[in-house]
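Batch job 17 of 40 flagged for manual review because the log was empty.
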Amino acid sequence: MLVSLTILASILASANAGCDNACSGHGVCTLDGVCQCYDNWGMGLSHDSGDCSDRICPYEIAWVDTPDANGQRHKYQECAGRGICNRESGDCECFPGYEGKACQRAVCPNSCSGHGQCKYIQELPYQETPYDYFNNYYGAASSSADFLPQSAQEFGAYKGWDLEKSRGCMCDAEWGDVDCSKHLCPYGTDIMDHRLNYNAAQKYQSQYISFKFPGTSPTVALQNGNTFALTFKSRLNETFTTIPIVYKGATASSNAFYRELERDVKAALQSLPNNVVDGVSVVAGTIDAATNTFINVTFTGDNVQGRQNLLTVRTYKCGDGCTPQLTGLELVPGYDVVKEVASADFNSYECGRRGKCNYDTGICQCFAGYTGNACNTITALV
């Protein structure tokens, strides 16, 4: 027995002696004298087992890499190809502009200058350009398949490979540029802009909102008394949501109810803070045999001249701890619509195109002969 134990000990000793540096304490020496490294240990750039003396850093989807034999790109790569692995600590030392344990995400420029939030690309909202796609949403019954469903009206349904890698700034109200460093100035019409026909009435932007309710007229009537709200976003990225608006109107003969609904919508919009909506006209009615209600909102005020962002309709139930509190409207999913039905022949320019914005203060420096917040008041004929 003693001889057998001695022989076994000699075999184990010779096996261990056959592995370089005894696998550095980070692996198991196999009988063929090759180290089987523990997880995240290896040697060199190729990560061969060797003596298991080097750390392996975290892997992430590569920002840029060469295609494989099948033409596939963005494979997993150490430090995502945007950092150098520290073989002693196992930490990625990221290049400027990248961060994360595997350098897997981009840094926002200037940390958004303290005036915005750093967001992943799929979290960024649709912007005004192209305008036809900003905040427009059509349901499945619409003939316009280009427009976005309500569920995607605020944020882009981005599915690209970098959806959790690329990031950008979502600026706070009154701040802009890619790093949110500039204080935005007021927008207004160019007071000297020429119209083609001064005898024709000036045109204002009109937005169309529709609600399609499930069931027939008796079922629709149950919606009376429920509340919804409208959200207005100004040209300075300010977002304002109205007080709860009581839905009124259910049948083709309920004209009196619709007139009251018109008054409520108008009052709610014109009651928003800072006089951001200083003038609107509202028309409401019914279509589709009393199962679909429409509301037309036309912006007529001086502060809302020209093209405006489309209104967002809040029809979900919002209870305790929510502002505003809403009982909500029961709608047919995907059939509610918000769109521009008439464009304005006013325009909307930074400082009315008659001044220069001071991005440090957000105040327009008007050219000679003009004054006002947006430089759209003439003080002298030049």
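Reviewer: the log was empty due to a logging misconfiguration, but the result itself is present. The helical segments are 2-17, 217-221, 255-270. Unflagging and moving on to job 18.
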